[in-house]
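User: We ran a pulldown and think these components assemble together. Before we commit to crystallization trials, I'd like a predicted model of the whole complex to look at. Sequences follow.
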Amino acid sequence: MNEVVLLSLSGILLGLGLYGVLTKKNIILTIASIEIMINSAIFNFIIFSSYNNNPAGDVVALFFIALAASEVAVGLALALMMFRIKKTLNIDVMNSLRW
Amino acid sequence: MDTLLFVLIPVFPIIAFLVIAFLGNSMKESGGYVALVMELISFIISIYMFVGVLTVPSYSVDKYMIWFSLSHGPTFEIGMLIDGFTAIMIFIVNLVGFLVILYSLGYMHADPGLARYYAEISLFIAVMNGLVLSDNLFELFIFWELVGLCSYLLIGFWYRKPEAAKAAKKAFLVTRVGDVMLLFGMIILLYQSHTPLALNFNQLYSWAATSKFSSAELTTLTAATFLVFGGAMGKSAQFPLHVWLPDAMEGPTTVSALIHAATMVKAGVFLIVRMMPLLQYTPATELIIAVIGGFTAFFAATMGLVAPDIKRVLAYSTISQLGYMFLALGAGSAGAAMYHLMSHAFFKALLFLAAGSVIHAVNTQDLHKMGGLFTKMKITAVTMLIGGLSLSGIPPFSGFFSKDLILDVVLQKGLNNPVYMVLYILAVLTVLLTAFYMFRLWFLAFMGKPRGYDEKHVHESPGVMVVPLIILAIFATFSWMFLLLPSFSQILGISLSLNIPTMLIGVSLGLVGIYVSYMLYSAGIPKKFTSVVMKQIHNILYRKYWFDEVYGAFSIYIIYGFAKLVSMFDKYIIDGVIDGIAAGGVMLSSSLYPIGKGLVKNYVTLIISGLIITFILLIYVSPFLYGGGI
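Assistant: Here's a predicted model for the assembly, 729 residues in total across the polymer chains.
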């Protein structure tokens, strides 16, 4: 029963992140929402790790935290460059890769 | 004799070809001397071969090296077959080749394409020698195509003239019809004979001599020999593939003399001479050869009667004389054909070179614009007279003996076979026509009054052009003396026997022809015909029996129509399917194009909805399909 509650929490986190990605116009908020979704995934690893008594999941979770941090660094750098070039943080402006 | 020395006969002209082809533009006129010297060396070697074979008449050596072999099939080789026929043919090719190059020094002087000319003519002599030396059909076929290529290049030598370009194309395409037949004949022979060395002449002969053919095998062999003759028909311009040779006269006159009179068009005769031991088992093919040869002899001569162009008259004469050779081959006498080939090579090369000398002087090929040249160009006139008398079969010129031999051979065959008797009558009538058109040409060119050329500038051609004429005139007069050599007649299997009645018929008809043309043409161009029938006949002959028109219509409506049909199939069915697939892809993507607006949110929405749909399918639908779950 405990796991179900925890997994529901993880699902709520995923839903919140997804909502943020889909609704926010500001790229910084979009990146923050992606972080929330990643956290829900990391949370899943920890839940199943304790459920199966297998520490491998915890290791992967630690690894993912580092990954998420570097991803945020890249994302913020992108946001910075975007602001320099486009003078805005509105993500809808970024459509020039479309053929 | 050192047989390996003869490899060098084609090698020297090839060296000349390479040198002139790569350095020719900086050598200008001296390229001609390179070609001349190299050809002289080949000529000397070929004299050595000729003399050597004459001292040992039964000489026959096949030297070859393996080219490649198939694991369950025959071995292909490249080699030389040296026997009496090879030696005679090599001698003719190199003698005429040498004289023509010598003549070209004067005739082609200051032509802008000189380097190309000497390169191509050297290449031609080389591959023609290769063709004659070939010891198997496969090798012969390679050289056969190469001489065809050289012929194409040299007919179209003045390619800026549209007629020359057209004539070259026509010659190439028409001979190609024959070449395809030859190729199929070779394939049939290759599959039928199973000789260890593929299509080697000597092995084919012994195969034919030792195997007992069933009637079905004989039919196959007949088909094979007929197809091989088809190749000869194209190359030697026999009816119905004769149409290219008159047009080939658009090339330089030297080329007409060397390629389209003396050597290349004889390749067909030479091929059939090589196939004679096989032909004796297929009398049907022999009969076809005789009929086509005899008919062509007469048919081409009739067209020669009215041709206005000095070179075209000679071209029709060449077709007609080649018809005589095939008639002799069809009557079973390779020797008579080969001997006529030899004397014809000399007198026809002489006639062409003399015609070239005339053209060089008056700058026109139209007989109606010549006339009265005898006093201005005595040597040309006299040598051409000798050639004409030889062609008309007047003794003691060599053409008399060779033509008499052929008539004799056909008559002997005709005593037992009515078809050959008809052919004999045709051949005898052709003698009359031959004498007539030849002397029509001579009288129109040299007798009468000048008819509209620049008289002041007309003079005898320079020495380099006159010397070959004189040498060829000597050969045209005295080459019958070869028959006095016992070894020469032994090689050809003929002898200098005069059959008095045939001889009298031939000579008297020749004299009648000369007399009629003297009456009509010695004073100039006669009046137009008044009777309707004669006008009609003249028109038919003048339009060459409408062969060009019929072939033109055939190729445009039938062949081009069929090609168009095939092209439509390619365009609409094959390309249609391929293009349809591509167009479907384009349509699909362009219909999806508005969905992708470049907005990140849209893509995320699409990905998420795709994921959700996938999960729904996996969880709720796949158990029904596969009986399991995820």
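Strands of chain B lie at 61-69, 75-82. That may be worth checking against your pulldown data before setting up trials.

User: Thanks, that helps.
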